[in-house]
From TrEMBL:
It comes from the Bacteria. Residues 132-260 form the Acyl-CoA thioesterase-like C-terminal domain. Gene3D superfamilies: Acyl-CoA thioesterase, double hotdog domain. Residues 30-111 form the Acyl-CoA thioesterase-like N-terminal HotDog domain. Signal peptide: none annotated. This is Thioesterase-like superfamily protein. Pfam families: 4HBT_3, 4HBT_3C.
């Protein structure tokens, strides 16, 4: 099976941290520049490291906060994961991606104790139409790069610039010769939210890359389809944001936010 990344090596350090060395494949190529990785699979590979670090059966990840330091270089890179705050009921862990001697992404995740709360369950976010009821949507194809070519997308009929529902899936594994969990596979698609309801296309003369990705999960996602109910908003002074409700085929499971830097392109 094709994959976004190949694992080259890994090592555990005396302080308990772990460094994994990877190489990105063409499917991880970004949309803004051919020599960068797309933030979506980069999020997925970081989540794979966060998920496995000092694994505990009584905890799961409830929030992931990723800050993008600059261009995510294509090719070989490392991810070092460490414990920031250990605890009985909550833990804070961090993964740092580096390439060419520079930090690309720093991600922090809160791991939270799990317990049975079915008796008080309550959700306000509404379900969206199931992907199998929607037509294949080619609206992402105006974006270049290997990552965009690796995904299948379907959209609701109300989809428009600035707002809409898009479902995404991929046949690729996150790591070569390894089975991806549903959590890793779907986290590796979330960053596409910024490109599914664009108020401007790349050919319109404006760029709007995100500087971060914040993901909050009230339950772990299941299945191979990620539904994104997205709203994109541009402010008047060069800053925008993309806000999304995240769905799997069973319903909503969380939300994401991205802050955008709006930049005029030289044409």
């Amino acid at each position: 099976m094709s994959a976004y990344y190949s694992l080259l090596n890994s090592e555990q350090h005396a302080d308990g941290s772990v460094t994994a060395y990877y190489r990105s494949n063409i499917h991880a190529q970004g949309a803004w520049n051919p020599h960068e990785q797309h933030m979506a699979p980069a999020t997925g590979i970081i989540c794979a490291e966060l998920e496995q670090f000092q694994l505990r059966n009584d905890m799961r990840i409830g929030r992931i906060s990723l800050d993008i330091f600059g261009l995510i270089a294509f090719g070989e890179f490392s991810i070092t994961t460490r414990m920031i705050r250990a605890g009985k009921t909550i833990e804070l862990i961090e993964s740092e991606m580096q390439a060419n001697g520079k930090t690309c992404i720093v991600a922090r995740a809160w791991k939270m104790m799990t317990q049975d709360t079915k008796a008080i369950e309550g959700l306000e976010d509404q379900r969206v139409e199931h992907p199998e009821n929607l037509a294949i949507w080619e609206g992402m194809k105006h974006w270049p790069g290997g990552f965009i070519q690796s995904i299948e997308t379907r959209a609701n009929t109300e989809h428009r610039a600035g707002k809409g529902v898009v479902w995404l899936t991929t046949p690729l594994a996150m790591i070569e010769k390894r089975q991806s969990t549903d959590f890793v596979a779907l986290m590796g698609l979330v960053d596409t939210a910024n490109g599914i309801v664009p108020r401007q296309k790349p050919t319109d003369g404006w760029a709007f890359p995100n500087l971060d990705l914040q993901i909050h999960l009230h339950r772990l996602p299941q299945g191979k389809w990620l539904g994104i109910d997205a709203i994109q908003q541009f402010g008047t002074d060069g800053i925008g944001m993309t806000s999304s409700i995240l769905h799997d085929v069973h319903g909503p499971f969380g939300r994401s936010e991205q802050i955008l830097t709006l930049r005029k392109l030289a044409i």
